[in-house]
Structure formats: structure tokens, C-alpha cells
Amino acid sequence: MQQQLIECVPNFSEGNDLGIIKQITNAIESVDGIKLLDVDPGKATNRTVVTFVGNPDAVVEAAFRGIQKAAEVIDMSKHKGEHPRMGATDVCPFIPVSGISMEETADYAKKLAKRVGEELKIPAFLYEYAQNNPERKNLSVIRAGEYEGFFKKIKEPQWKPDFGPAEFPAKSGATVIGARNFLIAYNINLNTKSTRLANSIAFDVREAGRVKREGHPIIGKIVNDANGEPVRIPGTLKACKAIGWYIEEYKVAQISMNLTNYHITPVHIAFDEVVKSATSRGVRVTGSELVGLIPLQAMLDAGKYFLAKQKQSLGVSEEELIHIAVKSLGLDELAPFDPDKKIIEYQLRNKEDEKLVRLNLKEFANETAADSPAPGGGSIAAYAGALGASLGTMVANLSAGKRGWEDKAAYFSEWAVKGQALKDRLLFLVDEDTRAFNRIMTAFGLPKNTEEEKKTRTAAIQEATKYAVEIPFKAMQTAAEALPLCEAMVKEGNPNSISDGAVGALCLRTAIEGAYLNVRINAKDLKDREFAEEYLNQAKTIFESANNTVNSMIRKVGESI
Fold first, then answer.
1. Catalytic residue at 433?
2. Is 83 an active-site residue?
3. Sign of the torsion angle spanned by Cα atoms 455, 461, 465, 468
4. Whole-prediction pTM
């Protein structure tokens, strides 16, 4: 169940007064549901880049409070700095990280811009994916003239703000708010100290390429086009900026890259393209490093890419995919690579949300056997389902790697990928079922001294009970989705593992029947009988269908062994 996450990177026009910067970041951090990842003040630029991430609504609120506070504590009429700027909050981009599209992210950017314009009376301009007018998409075009020139510029009809007044407030200035792609700062290490060689490789791969020259590629005469502009030979990678440099700390040259759209050029493609160019120049790539954070999906994609090159099944765990990516890219060459610190989603992960699934088998059994009602049957049912999906996935992986079955490897790999996803969903429900039970207990603990309190308590109990119906129902649905996996493995998988597929199916049936019991026992206490009957009817259908499927499967297995 992928969480919706947006990264926000506002740039504030203050880089020297740490007290002012702290006031702004405090305002941002006052919002629940966000995590402050980085604060990077620059003295020469007199500008601070703040990075935080969270769920979309929380990001909008946190960005609004940051912009509001910046307008209070920064006086743009006194601002000096090297970096182009037009306001106290100069620019505020939203970046989709996971579980959300660029279009949706742009809508949240517009929502923020509207609030800034209407509530704070700060002129707000949209840019990049949030801007529909192609002439106003580019940040540098919008900001042209900067703070000093905007008093006049904002009066021009073509530069009317998207939101807020067409008056330029001297203290706060204006702001630019938009949505853009995630930028990955990525360096690739070489077995040379030569900046010249590193630059040659960078020019081979970066989108801008290199200037075309006559004869010698470095000292030859520059070739110009009909307009007198230098002709460029494009590099091999789109959405990639790159230069070569020497790092004294590591005593190696690097290709320093900004991957401006990792969906177009992901890290693994950039890495392999640099390997190709470096090899042609007698240079060896020894590893790489990430500067800042990376989205989880980028790491998973890299892991799958390298597994596919090895002709291995892609149906491995998330942890294994990340391990393969780290080792294949050499991300741990210069320093240990800690996924919890380098992957955005892991930075936000609350380990308490995975309290049960992080226990070892013995600890989980002991926790279940303890004198507390949770974890109970619902969590155990979900875990049984996870084990069933895992067994089906195991058979798929074994079948994908079976000698002589190479022509079937992709087919079984697809099943294994599905099985991993289903297993992960069921593992999530192990803890979620316990959280659903705790919600009911919390509701029962609400005060009931007055009539109003009694009404509030009753409503809370009913809402929590509905959730306690929905969670085991989701476990039923997910376990039922995994049944075709085990069925396919029993029929078509490695014959040496037919009993494993059958045991997986039995685990899934246990999960479905156990979760069904939880749906029934929780639904009986609901006053909303229409809601209860709808779930009970659907749950009964899932249970009966699954029971018939598994019974038929087990009979066939019994006959064959």
C-alpha cells in the first residue's frame, strides 16, 4: 500500500541569520505529517534551501506556514545576495515522490499558490507542470528582472500573477510555486585523477553533449551554424546534466550528474552509459555515490534492471532489490550506504507501524501467546496469508531458475513479482489489524460523562468497528488474489515443489477463513446494518469460492503424489 508522498524544496531569501532561518523551519515543522530532511544556508547567495517531505495535505500546510513566516521575518527591501531572487520565499517547488502523479502534485501546488495569493496577499506565479501557459513555465523567465524590476513588471498584463494582487509588496516580494520532477544528484567514481578524461566522459553522456570542432575534438576550430551559434553534438542521455571533476578527499575523478527526470534517465542507465564511455577511453568505473536522497522506486528499478541483466527472476524482496542495486552501482564504495538514511520513504517510515513484522519468529509467537488480546486472530490470519503467498512465490522463483526451463523464466518471474507484492500487502495487514483493534479500545476509553461526550464516544466506537471490519476483509481479498499464484504453481511449476504450492494454498485458505471470522464478529456490533450486510455478503462469497478452489487443488495434488 504505497503512501502518497510529496517533497517540497522552498528557497528562502535569507542565508546568514540562523535565527530567522530557524523561525521559518520551526513553522514548517509545526505541521504533523511532514519530516524536515535538510536545511542548507548559503552566505554568499544569502539564501537557504529547505527540504521536507510528507503527505500532500501536510506539505501544503507546512509550505504555507513557511511562506507566511518568511514574509513576516524577511525584509526584501534590504536583501542583497548573489543568487537571482524575487521574494522572501523565492521559489517553492513540489516534487512527486511516491504514490502520486505529476498532475496531482501540480494540483496541490495550485492549491498552495491560491492560499498564498488570497490569504497572505503575496503575488504567486505558477511554473513548470503547474503552469498551463508555455510562456510562463520557465522559472528564469518568470524571475527575469528580479526583485528590483518586479515593481514595474507586475503591472504588465502578461505578467499578472496567477493568484494574489497585481501589486508588488516591497517587504515580501512575490513567489513562484510549481511542480517539477525529482532531481537526483549522483556522482560516478573513476580509477583516474584526470579531470580532462572525466570531462570527456561527461560530455559523451550529458544531454547538452559537446561543442562540435573541426579535426581535434578539444583544440580544433569550433563549428558554427548559420546563425553563428556553436553546433553541438548531443550526448547519449536525456534529462542529464554532467561535468567531470577531481575530488581531493577521495583522490579520484568523478562524473558529477544531475538527473533531472529519473523516469527518463534512471541512475542505472546513467551508470551503464558512463561505464560504456569510460571503457572506450581506457578508464574504469569503480563505484558511485548519491548526494542527498533518492526515491525508493528508483532503487527498486535499478535492482530489477541488474537482475534482468543476470537473467534472474525479478520476484525478490524489496530488501534484496535494494541490496542488488547498491552492489551493482557500487554505492557503498566511498562510504557505507544506509537505506534508512538515503531513501526518502524510509526516512519517513515509522518503525512502530511495523512492530509485529519486525519481530523474529520466536518473538512473534511469544508476543501472540502473551496475556493481551492483540495480536490476535486477525493478525495471525494475515500472517498465514503472507506465508501462503511466500510459498507460491518461492515455487515461482525456483521454476524461473530451473535448468531447461529458460523459455519459461519470464513467465514464472512475473508470477514471483506478483507474489512479492501480495506478500507485502498481507504483511502490512498483520500490524494494521492490531492497530484497528487498538482504535476500538481507544474509542471505548473516551469520556462519557455528558450526553455530548456519550454521542462522540458512540460514534467513535462505530467508526473504529467499521475499520475493524474493513481490515480483515482486505486480508481476505488479498489472500484470495494470491490463490491463482499457488494454483498456477501447482499445475505448471517445478514438479519437485508441488507440495510447497499446495501448502501455500492451505495457508491462504486459513487466512481467508480466519479473516472471515473476524469480519463476522466485528460486523455484529455495527448499528449501520447496510454497511455490515454488504461486507458480510462479499466476505461469504470470497470464503466459499476460495474453499472450493483449495479443496479441488488439494484433491488433485493428493492424486499426483
1. yes
2. yes
3. positive
4. 0.80
